[in-house]
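Hey, quick one: can you model this chain's 3D structure?
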Amino acid sequence: MIHRAVLVLAMLVAGCDAVPLEQPPTRARIADSSLPPIKDFASAHPVTPQRSNADMARDFLDLHFMLEGGSTLPVFTRFEGPITLRVTGRPTSSFNADLSKLLSRLQREAGINIRRIDDGSAHITIQSVSRAEIRRALPKAACFVVPNVSSLAEFRRNKRNPSTNWSQLRQRNRLAIFLPNDVSPQEVRDCLHEELAQAIGPLNDLYRLPDSVFNDDNVHTVLTGFDMLILRATYAPELTTGMSRAEVAARLPAILSRNNPRGDSLPSAPLQETSRDWIKSVEAALGPDTNGEARKRAANQAVATAQRLAWRDHRRAFSHYILGRMIQASDPTLAQKHFQTSMHFLGQSSNTVLHRAHIAARMAAYEIARGNGPAALTLVQPSITTAAQFENAALLSTLMLLQAEALELTGDFEAARAVRLDSLGWARYGFGSDWAVRAKMSEIAALGPNT
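Sure thing. Here's the predicted structure for all 451 residues.
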């Protein structure tokens, strides 16, 4: 019973790319919707960075002067002067509102002079195209950003030109962001945040950052307080394109003191550099081109590497989380132990509260499969607040649907009905089409011990 339920869970919890159990219905059925209106998040609630300015400076330098493959960049780059942005293609119905919110946050929280224009050339072009067009241009990408082009057609013509290679970038004048227009509203928004942040800010991602979208673990999907501080520092008047790492490093303490005075009083607690062996294992475990057994071996290798390096931070937790996901179908009880271990290493830090919410969803599903409604509620209820705070509608709706199942197990059917109904507007933002929302409901309902 638990085995079957967790097999269902392997496809459903907290992911925008989950595969539904049913095929999309006809367009006529999609149009004939009885679901509640789509919901979205009214305002952002970023958390102030919880690290010292000394550690912030190290993160800033590694984000700006390194690339993900390990190579280094010789100079600092950013846009100089006001930044203009235009949108082409066929954006989704939710896109304009999400873009406006993001631009407002960048202006308000990061102090960046960026505005949207409707006509003419712009520094940044966002082109909204189909997912298939993006994959034809870059097969493994869900969305991406490229320097020195303004359209997908121009990128195809210049794909092998050094001008489109980030490692050759020495100044920022013009670039393009390519976003899908046939995925869920949340996936479009998440791509927008990540790619626009890279377009105007750092080019690197660092697994050691627990509170940032500049991290390939994809836990955070909207720009955080840490990210906004990094971007505000990026556009500080003391910095300019062409500076060396040493020149930027000399100016950072004053910049960070001015913009984050609390960080001067916090003690430095730098994490170790992330092992390339660990990164390779994680990439293999999560990569689309790896078969099931190879992914499981890679996840075990990631755990072993984290243990060998004696890590006790969110990266160690992430290793166990990945492995737990890999073995859910074959050994749900052992998977639950890995999730518990992951929770242990995450601790109670405010930097890891969203990580804990993702794991709590999977642990709650296990308890529902066992018929333990009270245990599931204990896991789910605080995580619902977290998912809302961090604007993750897919996770929020999943947690609420799990809460409804747990409430039914305790006999509170009226509360279960109300929570389930309230979850659907969030599910429409998080998962998109009506058939995907209904499939999600069916998947979570199938976790119950009596189904």
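One thing worth noting: The chain is about 50% helix and 5% strand.
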